Amino acid sequence: MADIEFQGTGGIIEGDLEDANVNVNLDSNFKSVDSTNNQQILGASIANLGNQTNYTVMAWVKQSAGQSDSGGTVVLNGDNFDLDVNDGGYVRFAVRPAGSYIDVHTSGTTYGTAFAGAQNGWNHICGQWDSSASGGTLKIFINGIQTSTRTSVGTGATTAGTTALNMFSKDTNHDDQFAGEIIDVKCFNSVVSDADIKILASKINTDIALTSSASDCQVWYKLNDVTETTPQDSSGKGNNGPSNGIATNGSALTKLYDSFYVDVYDNSTTTDGTFTVT
To answer: Which of 11, 86, 130, 266 has the fewest CB atoms within 10 Å around its CB?
Structure first.
């Protein structure tokens, strides 16, 4: 029996598949939390994410329809930046240039239309701040496509300095927690190009080496090891999280297996053009 690897968010397979396993997105372990038990994944305290003037922050998420908190922190770095999804599936990205918080949502500057499939599947979400464009510009990208922009948000550096990176965190300033699954968290202290964002959104845990921004990636937590209790950094910067950083007040987060594959066994499946795997 042959194994056919089919990686990404879409594409075409042509020919006689015979007796084959069609594997889609081979990273199949992820971390899962609810929004009631103060669960969190603690990352490293990263100097190069504090006092910055540019950020690009991204993760793959699968939101639970049972999220009870109206906010929903996905990736948080003190008062430097916050990427979250609220209970209606709206994405928000906030930064604090020169000490003043400002944000952008998936419908301009206020919560509006939820992004497609927010509570029905995996989505790649990305927030970006470019301090050099139009008096400081915030953007949101969903599955590699820019969906929201806000200009004139400020150009001064963020002021929080070196603070720990948190995922799913509830703290005194951000008391709303995301509920669902997370994998493949990447944080850059630069403006990643639109083309590179599309590459990174094309497949779970796409290698940063495929982009022109690899050297600017300060942390990359794959979060795909079911036995992992300490977040391991794959950026090359050595920014592993603290021991037992994957925890909920001392207890391990739910670590589940999600099936990203389709089996084709009928030995006569052929295509004349587009073959869709869902």
So the answer is: 266
